[in-house]
Amino acid sequence: MRIRIYPWKSPSASAEALRDAFQSLGQDALLIRREGSRFTPRDTDFVINWGSTDVLPYETVNSAAAVNTATNKKATLQRLRENHVSCVDFTADQAEAQRWNSPVYIRTRLRASAGAGIIYAQAGEAIGLAPLYTKAEVGKEYRVHVMIDADGEGHMVRCQKRFKEDDDNPVRSHNNGYRFITGNFRRPNHIGKLAIAAIKAVGLKFGAVDIINARDPLTGERTLKVLEINTACGLEGSSPTELAQAFLDHLAPPEPELPEVEPYTFDPDTEVKLVRSDAA
Fold first, then answer.
1. Backbone angles phi, psi at 159, to 5 degrees
2. Which 3 state secondary structure label does DSSP give 71?
3. pLDDT tens, residue by residue, 211-226
4. Do 73 and 110 meet the contact criterion of CB atoms below 8 Å apart?
5. What is the pLDDT of residues 47-93, one digit of tens each?
6. Alpha carbons 159 and 1: distance in angstroms, whole number
7. What dihedral do alpha carbons 63, 69, 73, 76 form, nearest 10°?
8. Which residues pair with 252 in a beta bridge?
9. Reading across the β-sheet that carries 2-7, which strands appear in turn?
10. pTM to 2 decimals?
11. CB 198, CB 228: distance < 8 Å
12. Which of 146, 130, 136, 134 is nearest to 202 (CA)?
C-alpha cells in the first residue's frame, strides 16, 4: 500500500509532518504536488485529502464536498444544528446578534484559521455588518481528533486542551499565544461522543473538533458545545505519529492476504530426475 497526501496548500508544515510520521512507521508515504503532479493512483493506494476543497479525479479520505462544508464556519454550524449536535449559538442576522446583549464574535471571514477575521465585541457594544456572528461563551476549550472507520464506528484519537498561562485574550488562537497541551487536565465527560457526532454530521472521515465546556452565566451549569471543525490542523509534539498510526488502525485498507502455500517436501521415489546433457 502506498500512502499519498494531498495538501490544502504548498508548502504545508502539518502535511509534511504527517508524511514524515508515516515514513517513521515504515510506510511508503509522499505528498502529491498541487500543481504539475503526474500522480496516477493505484487500486491499493490510500490517499488522504489534507484540508483541500479541490475536486480530484480519484477517491480521497476526506471528500472535497465534506471539507468544503467543514471549512465554512457558517455551513458547519448550520449542519450541526440540523443534526441536533450541540454547538455555539450563531446567526447571520446583525440585528439578532445585537439583541443577544451578550459578548459576540463578529466573523468577517467564513473561511479562516488562527483567529483571522474575528472581531470581539462586548455586550451592548455596536457590532458591524458581517456574514456570521457567534455568541462568546465562557469556559475551557478543547480539541478532539476523531476518525470514523469503514463500519461507521467513531474513534477518539486524542483530546487536547487549549492553554495559556495568562488566559487574557477572548480570541484564543496560536497567534495570541495559546497552545494545546495533552496532559495535566481532566477531560470532560462525553466530549469524544460529541466530537464524533460533529464529524459525522458534516460527512468527514477524520477531523479535529474544537469544543468549549461552556458555563451558563445564570445557573453555572456546564454544556459542551462545538466551536468549529479542522480538516488540516497544526500538529504539535507527538501528535503526527499518533495520528499516522490512527490512520493505519482505523481508516487505511487492510493489506491483502497472500494465499497459503503448502510446504514442499522432497520425495525421491516420485521426483523426476533431471540429467545434465554432455552435448555441446
1. -125, 125
2. coil
3. 999 998 888 899 999 9
4. yes
5. 999 999 999 999 999 999 999 999 999 999 999 999 999 999 999 99
6. 29
7. -110
8. none
9. 28-31, 2-7, 46-50
10. 0.87
11. no
12. 146
End-to-end CA distance of the chain: 48
CA atoms 182, 183, 184, 185: torsion sign: positive
DSSP state of 251: T
DSSP state of 137: P
What strands lie across the sheet with 154-163, from one edge to the other? 179-181, 154-163, 139-148, 206-215, 222-230
Going by pLDDT thresholds of 50, 70 and 90, the confidence category of residue 280 is very low
Q: Are strands 179-181 and 139-148 parallel, antiparallel or unpaired?
A: unpaired
pLDDT of residue 195: 98
Q: State the pairing for strand pair 154-163/179-181.
A: antiparallel
- Whole-angstrom distance, CA of residue 233 vs CA of residue 237: 13
For helices 73-82 and 191-201, give the axis angle rounded to 10 degrees. Answer: 110
Place of cell 476549550: 141
3-state secondary structure of 16: helix
- Please tell me the predicted confidence (pLDDT) of residue 247: 97
- Beta-carbon contacts of 255 under 8 Å, excluding residues fewer than 6 positions away, are 1
pLDDT at 38: 93
Residue 166: Cβ-neighbour burial (10 angstroms; 0-12, 13-18, 19+): exposed
Nearest to 109 by CA among 93, 131, 129: 131
C-alpha span between 205 and 65 (Å, rounded):
12
CA distance linking residue 20 with residue 86, whole number of Å: 35
Rounded to 5°, angle at Cα 172 from 168 and 173 = 125
The cell for 280 is: 555441446
